[in-house]
Amino acid sequence: MDMQDPKELWEQMLTQVELSVSPANFNTWFKESSIVKVDDGIITIGVPSQFFKDWFLKKFHQLLLKIVRDISYEFRNIEYQIVKDERRKPARESARDKVLVELPLEDFYVNKSDNLNPRYTFDTFVVGSFNQLAFAAAQAALKRPGITYNPLFIYGDTGRGKTHLIQAIGNQFKKSYPNRKVFYVTSEKFGVDYTDAVQAGAAAHFKNFKEKYRQYDLLIMDDVQFFSKKDKMQEELFHLFNALYDTNKQIIFSSDRAPSAIPDIAGRLAGRLGSGMAVDISEPDMESRSEIIKRKAALSGVLLSPEVVEFIATNTNNSIRELEGLVNNIVCSAQVKGSAPDIAEVRQSLRSFVRPQKTVSVKHVVEKVSEFYGIEQESIYEKTRRREVVRPRQVIMYLLREDFNISYPTIGTKLGGRDHTTVIHSCEKIKREVVEDSELAKEIQDIRTMIS
């Protein structure tokens, strides 16, 4: 090894660092850093910010110093310098990254023109007794869009596959009607666009906002229950609904409850939401859960034994989202090992993946998540948007809501006085990502084990 070559030296150092810190710490702190200079026994490590520099000095300096002195006594000290991105190219991929790159998993990207995720199709949607009516209604709406079942309102508890179904409608609409426009939007994003248009002040901005949402032949809006208590946004949605409906444009909504059960929503809007076809997606039964498990694993090239499928289906709750997250985790392990898991391995995954059924203090969750990601607990409460703090904070919010059913306003209050809409956004973001990101699913699994 050429000890004066920054790239080679950094790769050698990272090999030892990776054995000494958790994967979460390694990914958070070392992927964004590299050696930028070796001069007269002094190694200069480039970091992206002052926060990184302070953290390296406080948490990793002694470890790195020991590693470089084990490599050669020529090295006298390590210094840290804030440098721009182009000088901070990662020098190596960790073994963990190399494995993930080699996994036969197809990358999917959301289409920015319509916000649709191409992985959500009818081909990958498992139909069972619990969602058969919703599936049939979706097919009928596609045959005569704007006429049959307009609006189509699909509701059910979190994690039942509503987003998959409504986006599958959008993706199929694009194929069936290539000259028509479709757009998927969450109620939160619609609210943000509305607020931005209002705050811009100029009439032209608000006109552009209105025209943007009125141009589509199919508008799909997710999680409309979040319009509760938002009177001005409700009014705008009411007028948008009328504009689309009157021109036979298809409208699809999703919610965690029926239109009439959404609290604090104007009667005339609730009437519009429920004026077409409102259909529930109920709890998936044992047979449906088993089929989802087999289909999800098979799509990733992993064949699970009937015993393993039955064990997973029997010992998990009724959230399809969490079921898929667990299967992702099992698939990832199987692909790394090169063989399908047995009952013992799945039992271990389930033990740390399932939600802890107990009460817990917010402080305890903050402590464990901060420990896992290697950050100061105090930073969770601060008004900072640093990436290395934002993700752990979002994970905390997600766990407090999903595992311990703490209300959004309470979570916001406990974590530095944040607005409940910020908490909702964070929880929904992690919910979406944990299904598609097996590494994040594994991190949350490990954290749940620490908390329990």
Model description:
Helix 14 (343-353) packs across helix 20 (438-451). This protein has 20 helices and eight strands. The longest helix is centred in the first third of the chain and has 22 residues, at 50-71. The strands form two sheets. Strands 5-6-7-4-8 form a five-stranded parallel sheet, sandwiched between helices. A three-stranded mixed sheet has the order 1-2-3. Helices cover 56% and strands 9% of the residues. It has helices at 6-20, 23-30, 50-71, 95-102, 132-143, 162-176, 187-200, 203-214, 231-246, 267-273, 286-299, 306-314, 320-337, 343-353, 362-373, 377-381, 387-402, 408-414, 420-436, 438-451, and strands spanning 34-39, 42-47, 77-82, 152-155, 182-186, 218-222, 250-255, 277-280. Residues 90-107 have low confidence and may be disordered.
Short description:
With 452 residues, the chain is of the alpha/beta class. It has 20 helices and 8 strands. The protein has helices spanning 6-20, 23-30, 50-71, 95-102, 132-143, 162-176, 187-200, 203-214, 231-246, 267-273, 286-299, 306-314, 320-337, 343-353, 362-373, 377-381, 387-402, 408-414, 420-436, 438-451, and strands at 34-39, 42-47, 77-82, 152-155, 182-186, 218-222, 250-255, 277-280.
Query: Uncertain segments of ≥5 residues (pLDDT<50)?
Result: 90-107
Instruction: Give the strand line-up of the largest sheet.
Output: 5-6-7-4-8
Query: Using only CA atoms, what is the Rg?
Result: 25 Å
Helix content: 55-70%
Strand coverage percent: 5-15%
Q: Strand pairing plus helix content: what structural class?
A: alpha/beta
Tell me the overall shape.
globular
Mean of the pLDDT scores? 84
How would you spell out the order of helices and strands?
HHEEHEHHEHEHHEHEHEHHHHHHHHHH
The number of E-state strands comes to 8
* Continuous helix count: 20
Q: What is the CA–CA distance across the termini?
A: 45 Å
Biggest beta sheet attributes: 5 strands, parallel
